[in-house]
């Protein structure tokens, strides 16, 4: 699952990123309102963690603008403002949940799971293609019912492939989705991770699901015998 954290406190932003990444979430951060709004509009996320009070553009305005732009991504507002009027203001702005500071990661993760059960718009967050399945919330992947042990990076790679079945995904798109837009990753690094992922997903099966498209990138398909 890809999460956008819009939080102007660098320390809290870093703590949130570290905690979420340990749970295999893919995290992008923004420290300012306009930057967060642009990222939320331009890139696909399954969830946005949004601070209420931000420089440049407050969280309530960001939520309203995202909804006006027909962005259906779940939004959870994080704020120290817990008055009933503030909660109502946040919900009326278009957020799906409201978590007051300070909070525990246990509560945050529980609320993330609850939001995931609602689905994101009309899209399910549990992916299946052929006999391969992946639940991004529990981080459980199986092939023909047999669990596949994945590293965090392998999990993120497989999730991105399964979110885009039968689509040729360019190398730069995969790198941006898995490692982030601010990270430089060489093509041979991507190839090494893909080789290991293909071994775990396909080696024991006649039907190969992960395919290399020479000159472009990779795709996940129902495969051919």
From TrEMBL:
DNA-binding region: 124-222
Secretion signal span: none
Residues carrying 4-aspartylphosphate: 51
Residues annotated as domain OmpR/PhoB-type: 124-222
CDD domains per record: trans_reg_C (cd00383)
Keywords: DNA-binding, Phosphoprotein, Transcription, Transcription regulation, Two-component regulatory system
GO annotation terms (biological process): regulation of DNA-templated transcription
Domain (Response regulatory): residue spans on this chain: 2-116
Example GO molecular function: transcription cis-regulatory region binding
Assigned GO CC terms: cytosol; protein-DNA complex
Protein's name in the database: Two component transcriptional regulator, winged helix family
Originating organism: Terriglobus roseus
């Amino acid at each position: 699952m890809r999460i956008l954290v819009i939080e102007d406190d660098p320390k809290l932003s870093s703590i949130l990123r570290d905690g979420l990444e340990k749970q295999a979430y893919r995290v992008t951060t923004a420290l300012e309102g306009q930057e967060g709004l642009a990222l939320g509009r331009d890139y696909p996320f399954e969830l946005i963690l949004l601070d209420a009070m931000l420089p440049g553009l407050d969280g309530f305005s960001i939520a309203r603008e995202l909804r006006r732009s027909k962005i259906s991504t779940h939004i959870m507002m994080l704020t120290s403002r817990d008055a009933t009027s503030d909660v109502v203001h946040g919900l009326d702005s278009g957020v799906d949940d409201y978590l007051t500071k300070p909070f525990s990661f246990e509560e945050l993760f529980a609320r993330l799971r609850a939001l995931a059960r609602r689905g994101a718009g009309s899209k399910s967050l549990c992916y299946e293609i052929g006999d391969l399945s992946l639940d991004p919330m529990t981080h459980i992947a199986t092939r023909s019912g047999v669990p596949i042990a994945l590293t965090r990076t392998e999990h993120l790679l497989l999730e991105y492939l399964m979110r885009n079945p039968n689509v040729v995904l360019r190398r730069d798109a995969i790198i941006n989705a898995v490692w982030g837009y601010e990270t430089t990753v060489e093509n041979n690094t991507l190839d090494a991770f893909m080789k290991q992922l293909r071994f775990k997903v396909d080696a024991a099966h006649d039907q190969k699901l992960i395919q290399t498209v020479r000159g472009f990138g990779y795709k996940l398909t129902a495969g051919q015998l």
